[in-house]
Specification:
Elements lengths: L1 H8 L9 E5 L30 H10 L2 H15 L7 H33 L2 E6 L2 E6 L8 E3 L21 E5 L1 H4 L4 E5 L2 H4 L4 H5 L3 E6 L10 E5 L5 H31 L3 H4 L8 H5 L2 H15 L8 H12 L1 H5 L13 E2 L11 E6 L6 E12 L2 E6 L2 E4 L16 H12 L4 E2 L22 E2 L3 H12 L2 E7 L2 E6 L2 E14 L4 E7 L5 E7 L1 H4 L3 E3 L2 H13 L3 E10 L1 H15 L5 H12 L3 E13 L3 H10 L3 E5 L4 H10 L8 E5 L5 H17 L5 E6 H10 L1 H9 L3 E5 L3 H12 L6 E6 L5 H6 L2 E5 L6 H4 L3 E3 L4 H27 L4 H11 L1 H10 L5 H6 L15 H26 L14 H18 L3 H7 L3 H28 L3 H12 L16 H12 L5 H6 L11 E3 L9 E3 L1
Parallel strand pairs: 10-24, 10-28, 21-23, 24-27, 25-26, 26-27, 28-29, 29-30
Antiparallel strand pairs: 1-7, 2-3, 2-4, 5-6, 7-8, 9-30, 11-12, 11-23, 12-13, 14-15, 16-17, 17-18, 18-19, 19-20, 20-22, 22-23, 31-32
Helix pairs in contact: 2-4, 3-4, 4-12, 4-29, 8-11, 8-28, 12-28, 12-30, 14-15, 18-19, 22-23, 22-24, 23-24, 28-30, 28-32, 32-33, 32-35, 33-34, 33-35
Length: 1039
Amino acid sequence: MLRWVRQQLGFDPPHQSDTRTIYIANRFPQHGHYVPQKFADNRIISSKYTVWNFVPKNLFEQFRRVANFYFLIIFLVQLMIDTPTSPITSGLPLFFVITVTAIKQGYEDWLRHKADNEVNGAPVYVVRSGGLVKTRSKNIRVGDIVRVAKDETFPVDLVLLSSDRADGSCHVTTASLDGETNLKTHVAVPETAVLQSVANLDKLVAVIECQQPEADLYRFVGRITVSQQAEEIVRSMNSFLIIYLIILLFEAILSTILKYAWQAEEKWDEPWYNEKTEHERNSSKILRFISDFLAFLVLYNFIIPISLYVTVEMQKFLGSFFIGWDLDLYHEETNQRAQVNTSDLNEELGQVEYVFTDKTGTLTENEMQFRECSINGIKYQEVNGKLTPEGFSEDSPDGNRHGLVKEEELFLKAVCLCHTVQINADQTDGADGPWHANGITSPLEYYASSPDEKALVEAASRVGVVFTGISGDSMEVKSLGKPERYKLLHVLEFDPNRRRMSVIVESPSGEKLLFTKGAESSILPRSKSGEIDKTRIHVDEFALKGLRTLCVAYRRFTPEEYQEIGKRLHEARTALQQREERLADVFNFIERDLELLGATGVEDKLQEKVQETIEALRLAGIKVWVLTGDKHETAVSVSLSCGHFHRTMNILELVQHKSDSTCAEQLRQLAKRIKEDHVIQHGLVVDGTSLSLALREHEKLFMEVCKNCSAVLCCRMAPLQKAKVVRLLKTSPEKPITLAIGDGANDVSMIQEAHVGIGIMGKEGRQAVRNSDYAIARFKFLSKLLFVHGHFYYIRIATLVQYFFYKTLYDSVYLTLYNICFTSLPVLIYSLFEQHVHPHVLQSKPVLYRDISKNAHLGFKPFLYWTILGFFHAFVFFYGSYLLMGEDTSLLGNGQMFGNWTFGTLVFTVMVITVTMKDMYFVFVQLLSSGSAWFAIILIVVACLFIDVVKKVLYRHLQPTSTEKAQLTEAGSGINCLDSMCCFSDGETACTSVRRMLERLMGRCSPSRVNRCGISLNSLCCRRFSYKLEPDEPAAIDV
């Protein structure tokens, strides 16, 4: 119990030694000296509160807010001393605010708990007590043997012990880790691969020694020994509250001083209606001064708006539903709507200055298609299943060829042999291939760790060289229908440093061959023969088209050479010390003196409207950074194809640096080039290694270069590096608002680090969606989320906040109802439904987003304007009522003169009407029965609002913003025309007006969406109508 309590409080962290020693099935040594290591449990926690800490933690967070803490102090003062108002006036609103906020935050956290419980409660099977035991994911312990079936998600980090395949291999997708949806092959060690039954696994006695978990997803070092038996708006509000608190303190001190100055005259020291007691006469002057100061502090405390926070919370919570209801953010193919996980950041969507995005699965569909290749210096394209040289058609004499020339066949064989592609186990590998019942061969279904490999092997099969599978230690291919068997001798796995992979095979003739493929920067320098120069030109041409490129080469070994490399490989692979370094040296020794065969160009299909969305973000003044784990060449290609990099942009590179000195020198050169070519737009490419060096010693220089670049691409990034880049911008002196968007678990750290996190509901699991603030189905939806919803939310919340400070300028019921009901509800409704510009205009003109950037509507100037306006209106309220109705000269309906209560109620009535127009029953009946009272109300309200109206008119005509210009254009085009049967332009039928009204109600639905909504326009009187549309919409729609 004590250990559980310590873990809940965070005082008992897991063991953090350099290595882990894991006893499989938790069979610990039997001697008494062994102390088991302590490991974290398997629970996933994305929630903020628990049942035990909700009340204290929530109260602590709420009272960290200036306004709540201030009213708590006022309430305590009212309880301790005699004050002009009842403690209820502060205590009741404070209790209401705290309660509503707690309910709202508790509900949102309950949704997080619900999502966590779905994952933690997922059923899993573990081997215990000689059999399979069904348990929950959260109950898995380090050392358990877990059974995972086909298409199931891994509940924990696992080491492969065995599979149902004879060779102990399995194919897994790491989509939830790095966003890659393709299968990767893993093979169990021979000692455990043979244990394919539960009974045998239960008898396994083994120990795994490995490193502690680290940030690098692609690196794991360990060994197994087998015996023979884991906000901008709020800052503005707090700043304004502090200013008003200073004003409040000044007013209280000034009033206390004026009181004693007033009482300096004998006749006013003790008026008949406020005689002092004996105790008050004899009390200390200092204590009396403090008591009077606190009394004035309580009297004026309503200058701080108690209902501000609760109204803001309600506005955020209720307003967040509009995102989920927006049909324009609905993805019909996957039947997914936009999702809001937290409503606290709605207004931040209108303040984004930097967008950090993942590439694979976020910008792209992660679907590869073969486009072109270069073989022996000649470019080829696939035309109707045939490999055709560029410039020749299928009908031309040279294009309509039968068979493949020697170089083409060798190139395609290299593509079919140098890969990690697997074939669906359900398909047979008979001599004649799989057959349908009608005798027609069915295409093989390939799986691969790289989408490029899969696309290349499929393309090779279409043009005549088919990879038919692996049988034992042999790879089988069919070249133009002729089966061939190559013995697989060694696989030289791909790694990010070499940027290539190779296989060593024995051909049917007994010849030892090395086939290798990789980035051109790693293949071309190692090639000694072949059409190197022509191939380099072709690779550059492929890259300019946005294609992902690979070069292919081979090498022949003599028997002596093969014997030497076999010996070196064995020594490196069995080394216990510096294994990776020794393997890298051997791989470099083998992969040299290559003969270049050619290159390939594969297209990674972009998501729909990615280029338009990125361009819209750029027009809105938002800088886009692409953070990806992909290699340099691939990342640059996709950046060019998606419009992140322009063709005319000067692309700068900070890559492949190994030392601080070279990195610093390159940064200085880049800064100099940017300064010299300041007219040209620049793009920056930086890889993970160089980024680490830049952030270590040269952070300021690196930031200077980045901020002067229009677009930044970071490649070869580990997940934690992505988060570091976001944090770097987030904490820079300018304190920009950042947004991160991704689709996989490798993006979670980046999403959580940014001010606003967006998860893409893609193919790569739900981790990003669960840990994000908002979730959308496609990248293109980001434009409406920011330009429409973000714009509206910011304008609404900015008006609401400024309005609250403006209106805080009598019986305690008036004071309480004034802030809670009379003036809060109208502005709450306004802040939920106001649309100052049509949503279509906002989305089609991204430049309007600049008008609200950098907290433009909650800066000091707008705040000062609203504050001065509030003081001016308060002056007019009081002295206007006094001049018009004072001195008891006015008569009520019953002939009585105005008194203090009636005068005060008049001032209160004028104030409520004025404040509400700006965006006690019996007393009211008496007051409003006087004609002079009505005249005073109208005159004072007009006088107050006159200055505000004149200011708005002058500014709109003399210094209009882009948004105000759009409003004028919109009004001129008739968009703001009241949607009704009686309001339509010349020549427009009433039926067209009904159509326009339905469009406005349904968010400019497409005809298919109108039908989904269950609305039949055929019931209307129109057969066909035409109206002005966007360029990408049809000119007319049949109804």
